Amino acid sequence: MTNRLDREQLRQDVRDANYAGRRTAPSAIAWIAALVGVVAVIALVAYGVKVAFAPAKGAGDTVRQNEDVNNRVAQQRAFVNLHEGVQADDLKIQVLADAAAANPADPKAKTDLQGTQLICLGRVADYNAKVQETLAAKWLPADLPARLGADPSTDCKPNTVPSPAAS
């Protein structure tokens, strides 16, 4: 009889172990699914917070980049280089206009004049656009104009009075 009881007990123990095993597997899967769900919710919340604060972060990054000393030096250098380039081109335009007026039959003189005027106009446009840039506008040197093209020294047109070099 003990043998039979032991057998019955063994069978019952096996049944219990099988039952526990069947209950543990879904339980482990449920825990894993819950963990994945919690991680997904945390990721979505983190993404939402990042998106919500993106405008403020962008504005702060812009201020930090704008106030950077390297930006200041680079922007001032760019303004000065563009302004000096336009003034130099304007002087070249006068010389080329005088040469074209002296030799009206020379197509090269007219072409050189037109090419230099186009280069000058491009620089004026670059300068005027740079004045509008977020990272550049604040660093326009005080001695430079806020806009080029109105002053005869930066209008990319020959002066109406011939230069003394032409006479």
Rg, Cα atoms, Å:
40 Å
Structural class: mainly alpha
- Terminal CA distance: 138 Å
Quote the average pLDDT.
85
Our count of domains comes out at 2
Beta-strand content estimate: under 5%
Largest β sheet strand count, sense and barrel closure? none
Helix content: over 70%
Low-confidence stretches: none
Instruction: Count all strands and give the number.
Output: 0
Question: What's the overall geometry?
Answer: rod-shaped
DSSP helix count?
A: 4
Plain-language structure description:
This protein has helices at residues 2-52, 54-67, 69-102, 107-132. With 167 residues, the protein is mainly α. It is rod-shaped and about 130 Å long. 12% of the residues are buried. The model has no long low-confidence stretch (mean pLDDT 85).
Task: List the defining traits of the structure above.
167 residues, mainly alpha, 2 domains, 4 helices, 0% strand, rod-shaped
List strands and helices in order, with pairings.
Blueprint (H helix, E strand, L loop, with lengths): L1 H51 L1 H14 L1 H34 L4 H26 L35
Structure in a nutshell:
This protein is mostly helical.
